[in-house]
User: Which sequence fits this backbone?
């Protein structure tokens, strides 16, 4: 997890195409070269814990309202691991699997439709 400073630094490095040093197998990590770019382990743990607690609250509220809910992380994991049945088609994370756009990175129109109805 990067700090805002780290995000700006990495973005600028990518845009400048000055990332050769980072492909070196001896590279020890961004934080060793640029202090303040990576959040601490304690912060990572606290953020993950809070997100898990919020997701639990959302799922419980959905259950109380007799609604089905799935976190986006759970949806993406499910699509990746086993696919997702939508009508007569099984959407997968594979290239041309139906869930992602042709760049295989962003959900396509069908993927966004699934997100809108499941999450």
Assistant:
């Amino acid at each position: 997890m990067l700090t805002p400073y780290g995000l700006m630094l990495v973005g600028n490095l990518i845009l400048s195409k000055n990332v050769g040093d980072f492909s070196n197998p001896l590279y020890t990590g961004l934080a060793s070269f640029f202090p303040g770019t990576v959040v601490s382990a304690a912060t990572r743990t606290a953020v993950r814990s809070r997100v898990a607690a919020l997701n639990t609250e959302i799922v419980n509220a959905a259950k109380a309202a007799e609604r089905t809910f799935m976190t986006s992380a759970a949806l993406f994991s499910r699509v990746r691991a086993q696919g997702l049945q939508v009508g007569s088609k099984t959407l997968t994370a594979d290239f041309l699997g139906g869930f992602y756009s042709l760049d295989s990175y962003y959900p396509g129109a069908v993927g966004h439709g699934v997100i809108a109805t499941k999450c």
Summary: The longest strand covers residues 84-86. The beta strands are 84-86, 89-91. The CA atoms of residues 76 and 93 lie 8 Å apart. The chain is about 50% helix and 5% strand.
